[in-house]
Amino acid sequence: MKQSLWHLGQLLVVVCTVGSIHLVTILYLNSTFPARVLFQLYSVNFIMAITGYAMIRMAYWLKSQVEGFVFLLGSFIKFGVLYGVFLANETAAIPDTKQAFLHLFVPYAVCLIWEIATLAKILNQAPKSSV
Predict the structure, then answer these.
(1) 31-68, pLDDT tens digit by residue?
(2) Is residue 129 part of a domain?
(3) Among 15, 30, 68, 98, which has the highest number of CB atoms less than 10 A from its own CB?
(4) Residue 126: left if φ>0, alpha if ψ -120 to 50, beta else—which one?
(5) How far is CA 87 from the centre of its chain?
(6) Up-side HSE of residue 79: CA atoms within 13 Å toward CB?
(7) Which of 47, 48, 44, 67 is nearest to 57 (CA)?
(8) Is residue 130 part of a domain?
(9) CB 3 within 8 A of CB 18
(10) Cβ distance 74 to 52 under 8 Å?
(11) Which domain, by its residues, includes 74?
(12) Domains in the chain: how many in total?
């Protein structure tokens, strides 16, 4: 439990730090990208990263040895949700441009890198199977 709280605290710090830098950069460049949408992007990515982490932890706790597959499935679902909510529908919050995709991809990549790092830590702690 202590390790899980530590990992989630790391995620919160990373998301807040990168999100703040991203927001300051947008404001400095006088971009027309709305700060509200940027906050929504980081919030949705943060929530989905927590959900994916919980699913990985549950798979580890059940000793099912499918943590990597759970991670891949979670990443696939996360990208589909982000694309569907922010880009693909008729009332999309983000106009379909290369710059908008960059704003979508930065929070996704930050959370993905964190998930990969924590999955590696979890798998390194796993007991070796006797195969």
Answers:
(1) 777 788 888 889 999 999 999 888 888 888 887 778 78
(2) no
(3) 15
(4) beta
(5) 17
(6) 11
(7) 67
(8) no
(9) no
(10) yes
(11) 2-124
(12) 1
